[in-house]
Amino acid sequence: MAQVTSGLRSVLSSPGVYSAFQTLVGATRLRKAICAEYIRANAGDILVDVGCGPAEILDHLDPSIRYHGFDLSQAYIDTAREQYGDRGQFHCADITQIADDAIPPCQVALALGLLHHLDDDGARGLIAHLYKRLAPGGRLITLDGGYWPSQSRAARWLISKDRGQNVRPGEAYRDLAAASFDRVELIRRDDLLNIPYSHAILVCTK
Questions:
Q1: pTM given for the model
Q2: The CATH number of domain 7-205, selected from 1.10.3720.10, 2.170.150.70, 3.50.50.60, 3.40.50.150
Q3: DSSP assignments along 133-194, one per residue
Q4: pLDDT of 76-116, one tens digit each?
Q5: What is the pLDDT of residue 146?
Q6: What are the domain boundaries of the chain?
Q7: How does DSSP assign 90-146, residue by residue?
C-alpha cells in the first residue's frame, strides 16, 4: 500500500486524531450523504467495508445491517470494537491476502478512501476480489479524492497532500473498476467536505 506516514501525516495513524481530523473537515456530512445517496442498503443486507478505519460509517447505517469491517490497522479495529461492540464484526486483515471464503457474500461492498492508496494492479485486484463476493445485483461503492480538469487550485493542492500516493483523474478510477464490472457509474462531488475537495465516487453494479 503506497501512502505517506511520516512527518505531520504520521499522527493520522492514531484513531483519536484521525477521527478528530475527519470531523473537522466535515466527514460526518460526507458519511451521511454516502449512506443516503449511494449505499442505500436494505434492512438485513450484508455489507463489507474494506479500509473501514474506526468504522464510523456505522453511525449512519440501519442497525439491522450485518456489517463486516476490514482494516490493516489493529489500532483502528480495536477502536471500532470498543465503540460499536456487536454492531458489526471487525477484522484486522489485508483483504487482498485472505481466502475468498473469509469474506462473507454480500449485497454491498465499500472501499471508501482506499483506491488512492493502491497502485493500479492492487486496485484492480481488490475490485476483482470484491466482485466475486457480491451477490447478483450487488453494488461496490468507492470514494476517493480525484483530479479533474476544472477543479479549483485549492482542491487540487489539498488532494495532492493526501497520504495516499495514487490519486488519479476521475476517469482512471472508472477504468480500474471496468476491468471487473460491466456497469460502472462515475460521479464527481465537490460539496462533501468543509474544505475545497473533489471526490470521485464509483457505483459498480454486478
A1: 0.88
A2: 3.40.50.150
A3: HEEEEEEEEEEEEEE-TTS-HHHHHHHHTSSBS--EEHHHHHHHHHTT-SEEEEEEES-SSS
A4: 999 999 999 999 999 999 888 888 888 999 999 999 999 99
A5: 97
A6: 7-205
A7: EEES-GGGS-GGGS--EEEEEEET-GGGS-HHHHHHHHHHHHHHEEEEEEEEEEEEE
